[in-house]
């Protein structure tokens, strides 16, 4: 019995930075392959009479060098690798033959049996790269790669902490390698976390989670992960924050990868800055992973774009947790009332009547469209719409609960009015 196809391949990873790589063809295949090739830092020459618009854009900014003509064997001089990305078998065979003669490895999109090198299906997961060769069947390699990618992302395949060194190569405090990652969990739908955020969550030893964090993300944690529920920390808000900072620093100092998981984006009313400062003061390395903020995503989920051509060219996000007129308030409600653009108010549900009244009193037209969205992007999402002067009462009678967002402006009806 013969060996399966590809069993005689020698897998290898190439360092192509600064080295000349030739791509023959300027169509769909070349377009798909180009980003990974450019990411290596290779000096890419592309020979083809025609280019797709995205390849053309790369040529225009000098990311690749375009030879606007057909291939000639001399194009392979000084090349380390050639990628054939053309359909014409005769022309492709000509490239193969010239490459063979010059001992340049040749990847063939059209005919793997004629190729002297194969490109695997790849998934990158932080420092880990998995390359899958599917025995000559690209669908098989992609299917296996996808399954591995999903298991890496959900922690099903644990990735050991890599000698506990940091992205920049330095070790953590006192060489423990501990660190803190402030991760934005997104607005509620567990699929709206970033890829990096999900990876760090899968690698975490300790997770300190906020109340607004999607529960399903926590469901995926390995059983040995210590989960600290920041919402359950007693004391008042100021003491609780100190306590959270203390936990982050202490766990990181003991060598843990601590993920501080926060709703939306960590720097949008999330006190993320304070936690970064606390870590920095303690000499604990800290990394911030942005998140999809509810300020934009929740209106969007309810069909409201925060900007819209010819309707709103600005949007302003404010906190409504201190009512207008309160001496503690840092928000200029009178100034906001004069804006024509979109106003998004977070944490404003309990002060909704006071907020909308202040906006009207300071000149925003009472008939301005407004919406309140509860638990946007989740299964419990509810939206009420009314005008600025009636929205507070509508939200009250509809028993809208927190978390909720108020959005004010013509954008509220921009997609519903035709
Ligand atoms: N850092 C978060 C915001 C924290 S402040 C972010 O970037 O999204 C908390 C406020 O965000 C809530 O009071 C509410 O106004 C809003 N919020 C967060 N998630 C929400 C959701 N799914 N639906 C409606 N409002 C939400």
Structure description:
With 418 residues, this protein is of the alpha/beta class. The chain has 4 domains: 100 residues, Rossmann fold (3-Layer(aba) Sandwich), CATH 3.40.50.720; 31 residues; 111 residues, Cobalt-precorrin-4 Transmethylase, domain 1; 123 residues, 2-Layer Sandwich (Methyltransferase, Cobalt-precorrin-4 Transmethylase, Domain 2), CATH 3.30.950.10. Helix content is 29%, strand content 20%. The protein has 12 helices and 17 strands. The protein has a 5-stranded parallel beta sheet, sandwiched between helices. A 5-stranded parallel beta sheet has the order 10-9-11-8-12, with helices on both faces. The chain is globular, with a radius of gyration of 28 Å. The N and C termini lie far apart (68 Å). About 3% of the residues have low confidence. S-adenosyl-L-homocysteine binds next to helix 9 and strand 17. S-adenosyl-L-homocysteine (SAH) binds next to helix 9 and strand 17.
């Amino acid at each position: 019995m013969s060996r399966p196809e590809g069993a005689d391949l020698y897998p290898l990873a190439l360092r192509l930075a600064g080295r000349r790589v030739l791509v023959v063809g300027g169509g769909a295949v070349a377009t798909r392959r180009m980003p990974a090739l450019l990411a290596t830092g290779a000096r890419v020459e592309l020979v083809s009479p025609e280019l797709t618009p995205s390849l053309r854009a790369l040529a225009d900014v000098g990311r690749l060098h375009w030879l606007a003509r057909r291939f000639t064997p001399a194009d392979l001089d000084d090349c380390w690798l050639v990628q054939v990305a053309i359909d014409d078998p005769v022309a492709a065979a000509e490239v193969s033959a010239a490459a063979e003669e010059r001992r340049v490895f040749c990847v063939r999109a059209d005919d793997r049996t004629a190729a002297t090198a194969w490109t695997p299906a790849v998934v990158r997961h932080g420092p880990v790269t998995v390359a899958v060769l599917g025995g000559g069947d690209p669908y098989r390699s992609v299917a296996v790669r996808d399954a591995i990618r999903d298991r890496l992302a959900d922690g099903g395949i644990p990735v050991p902490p890599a000698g506990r060194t940091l992205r920049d190569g330095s070790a953590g405090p006192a060489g423990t390698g501990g660190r803190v990652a402030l991760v934005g969990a997104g607005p509620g739908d567990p699929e709206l976390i970033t890829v990096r955020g999900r990876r760090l969550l899968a690698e975490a030893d300790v997770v300190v989670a906020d109340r607004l964090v999607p529960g399903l993300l926590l469901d995926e944690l390995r059983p040995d992960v210590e989960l600290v529920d920041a919402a359950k920390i007693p004391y008042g808000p100021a003491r609780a924050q100190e306590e959270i900072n203390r936990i982050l620093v202490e766990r990181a100092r003991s060598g843990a990868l601590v993920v501080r998981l926060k709703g939306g984006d960590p720097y949008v009313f999330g006190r993320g800055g304070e936690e970064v400062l606390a870590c920095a003061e303690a000499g604990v390395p800290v990394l911030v992973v942005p998140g999809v903020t509810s300020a934009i995503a929740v209106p969007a989920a309810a069909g409201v774009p925060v900007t819209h051509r010819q309707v709103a060219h600005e949007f302003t996000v404010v906190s409504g947790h201190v009512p207008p007129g309160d001496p503690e308030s840092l928000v200029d409600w009178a100034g906001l009332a004069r804006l024509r653009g979109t106003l998004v108010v977070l944490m404003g549900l309990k002060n909704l009547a006071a907020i909308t009244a202040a906006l009207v009193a300071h000149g925003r037209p009472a008939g301005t469209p407004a919406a309140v969205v509860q638990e946007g992007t989740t299964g419990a999402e509810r939206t009420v719409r009314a005008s600025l002067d009636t929205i507070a009462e509508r939200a009250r009678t509809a028993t809208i609960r927190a978390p909720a967002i108020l959005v004010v402006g013509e954008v509220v009806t921009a997609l519903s009015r035709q």
